[in-house]
Specification:
The protein has 330 residues and is α/β, with parallel strands linked by helices. Helix content is 44%, strand content 12%. The strands form 2 sheets. It has a 7-stranded mixed beta sheet. The protein binds ribulose-1,5-diphosphate (RUB).
């Protein structure tokens, strides 16, 4: 551990890794805030040392979770705004840039919500998956327009982010029907929209979001229910323009199967579950995200307007232009 990295940065990184801070937009906001704190608390005695510390802090934050591109996009944005010859100048520009990023993030979400709300009619029933602040912003704006909205909320195993969505919707007085993930297809007949967020959007219009999104989208297409993805442009993944794929995070197996349950399964099966049995034949896979191909998505709603997934690449080119290396690797 680098002793010049602020404990606040380490704490933010730990919170992201452990999912106490979660969801792509919230992670980006927390990361920008952490860089501002690093800039504020840095005791660097030279401009180059200050820059080194900020890059190290960004790297610590970057290495927490791999899938939501809003995290590297946030770090890149803040570090590119770090300008000046002296520590004081660098500190000021970095903090200003982080504040600007966070304000833009909030504004983009509000704007996106207003655009997404136009797709929702009075009396519509929306099916959600996971917990997405961008998706909820669309519902919030529709409610502000005086529309009545109901929600079918998928539980979202293994971490049950559906509970967070249900809590927020009930706070807004939206009637909620909570269902287990496996019941989604049955309840699609009652839904007018599937509304989800995104962790990353690739140049071909593929949507990377919470595991289960792709199956939901396939079922929705089969049932004729439109799939709407609410994603600020911070979710656009620049590396995918040059052929890179988005890494899907694999999380700990204990999120799916506790060690107690594992022991019980193996004991009941009469298998050898001694700790030194290196391969007991029971494998748990726990991917956190999946990829929904563009043909199963009807619209990607951003703060820059609504796009068919196949044309999102034009927006990406406009926003990112030529991509360069990561600033924390400079
Ligand atoms: C969260 C998730 C959300 C997106 C979008 O996964 O998949 O749908 O991050 O959220 P996890 P937002 O719980 O594993 O972080 O719209 O708030 O950015």
């Amino acid at each position: 551990v680098d002793r010049d990295i602020s404990p606040a940065v380490v704490e933010t990184a730990d919170d992201i890794a452990a999912m106490r801070t979660r969801g792509a937009a919230t992670i980006a906001d927390a990361a920008a805030d952490a860089l501002a704190i690093q800039a504020d608390q840095s005791e660097a005695d030279s401009a180059s040392e200050f820059r080194r510390q900020l890059r190290a802090a960004a790297k610590t934050l970057y290495e927490t979770r791999p899938t939501a591109v809003s995290l590297p996009n946030a770090l890149r944005y803040v570090l590119r705004g770090m300008e000046g010859e002296t520590v004081t100048e660098l500190r000021t520009t970095t903090i200003t840039r982080a504040d600007e990023f966070r304000a833009d993030l909030e504004q983009a979400q509000t704007k996106l919500g207003e655009i997404g709300a136009n797709r929702l009619r009075d009396g519509d029933v929306v099916m959600t998956h996971c917990h997405s602040t961008d998706a909820l912003s669309c519902i919030e704006a529709a409610l502000e327009d005086g529309k009545e909205i109901e929600a079918i909320v998928k539980e979202t195993r293994p971490r049950k982010q559906g509970h967070i969505t249900a809590r927020q919707l009930r706070e807004w007085d939206v009637p909620v029907t909570l269902v287990v993930d496996n019941a989604a297809r049955r309840y699609l007949d009652d839904a007018d929209h599937v509304l989800v967020g995104a962790d990353s959007i690739a140049a071909d219009g593929s949507v990377v979001n919470k595991i289960g999104t792709s199956g939901l989208a396939v079922n929705a297409r089969e049932r004729g229910v439109p799939v709407m993805v609410a994603a600020q442009t911070i979710k656009l993944h620049p590396d995918t323009m040059t052929g890179h794929t988005v890494e899907i995070e694999m999380r700990d197996e204990t999120e799916v199967l506790s060690s107690g349950d594992r022991t019980a399964i193996l004991a009941e099966a009469g298998a050898d579950d001694s700790p030194d049995a290196s391969d007991d034949g029971l494998t748990v896979e726990n991917p956190a995200f999946d990829v929904t191909p563009p043909r199963h998505v009807d619209a990607i709603v951003t703060e820059r307007g609504q796009f068919p997934p196949e044309s999102i690449v034009t927006l990406m080119r406009e926003l990112f232009g030529e991509t360069t290396g990561e600033p924390w690797e400079a």
